[in-house]
Amino acid sequence: MAIEHDFFGLLETGPDGSIFWSENVELGDMRVTVDLTAPDQDEVTQDALDAAAAIVSSLEEIDRRARIAMLGEVDNRASEVTEYILMQQEQLGDQLEDFLVDVSGDAPVDIIRSMQLTSVTILADEHGGSDPFAVMEYALDPDAADDVLLVNLSGDGEIQSVTSAD
Asked: Quick check: helix, strand or coil at residue 47?
């Protein structure tokens, strides 16, 4: 079986009933991998696919809002964003400036501005639930796969939370 959608085209079903779609999207100078997945095609609605298409289509705006959400957590010393920034400063030391696109002197702002959106995973079967519908993965150093921040989105593209990968 398969599901057809105007944006995603034909979504083939795997032997276990799962669906998967993947595409690389250019976002400014970033190459972002966008994956849509669901373990059971029967749990994926047209509304979920429409919401997923809206997220992919407005990725630039959602990226902007995600960075604003990260900046909003910088003043909270216990936030995972602050912990991530401190960890990057400690691990990279003098090499930190090599990863920054702009050095304003405000390290948290510079780090968040310089982070790359590496991937977006859309969990199509989570539409309408309380669990994240989409997860955006950000990294200052894309080669450091474990050092990432995750921005969780609801089905309407609103930011639910910012967490670390731990």
From this structure: helix
pTM > 0.70: yes
Q: What is the pLDDT of residues 110-160, one digit of tens each?
A: 999 999 999 999 999 999 888 999 999 999 988 877 789 999 999 999 999
> Concatenated DSSP letters for 92-161?
HGGGHHHH-S---S-HHHHHHHH-EEEEEEEEGGGTTSSS-SEEEEEESSTT-TTS-EEEEE-TTS-EEE
Name, in order, each residue with C-beta under 8 angstroms of 73's C-beta and a sequence gap of 6 or more.
79, 80, 81, 82, 162
- Token representation of residue 89: 């400063």
DSSP 48-105: HHHHHHHHHHTHHHHHHHHHHHHHHTTT-TTSHHHHHHHHHHHHHGGGHHHH-S---S
Query: Pseudo-torsion of CA 138, 37, 59, 86, nearest 10°?
Result: -10
